[in-house]
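Amino acid chain
________________
===
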Amino acid sequence: MSNIIYSLKSVKKTYKSGSGITHALDGVSFDIQKGEVIVILGPSGSGKSTMLNILSGIDVPTSGKVKYLDKEIGKYNDKELTSYRKENLGFIFQSYNLIPNLTIYENVELGAYLSEAPLNIDELLKIVGLEDMKNKFPYQLSGGQMQRVAIARAVAKNPKVLFCDEPTGALDEKMGKQTLKLIQDINKKYGTTVIIVTHNPSIANLGNMVIKMNSGKVTDIHRNDEIMNAEDIRWA
């Protein structure tokens, strides 16, 4: 049985504009293994956010094949893409997107509602270190704490894949490392495939596989012989 969760073959994404055609992705090919941490690294405009959108079914490729568990999601219609995201994926963004008039517990509970097999909310709050704050509201939390709530909410639905789009972009070094440590812990505890999109080269040390991008192309793919703990990485 294959251990590949994603397979991309010659994927292109082009946009027409007044000045011509922009190649956001230009012939990208790679495979992603189940249960691994994947870091997609590149500067602004490199195509990494477009890559996240294609993998997560937020957007569809112009050409090429995108397969998830051997099913070609690039050919899904809108209804099928919605089901794919709901049933398989969790998302963590740079902005926390918490509901201000709901408690921490209720915010995490929202993620659980989206799943037929959700994780235990109290257990998740303990993992993210917020079990004593579950009845507080988002405005009573720090930025790092709000990001931890957002992580717990994304994981509550028990997703097969967790997409992290610049998850430390709004955090200082201490909170950023704590957030990455939490993502590592979730990967290890639940076997969740984690895909981190970042411009921070230090985060590459956390990935089983690192995909470097520039100008819509994959410039390098390598596997780390040794994976660092989040607390030990140098911050960039």
Q: What stands out?
A: The domain at 35-60+84-232 is CATH 3.40.50.300 (Rossmann fold).
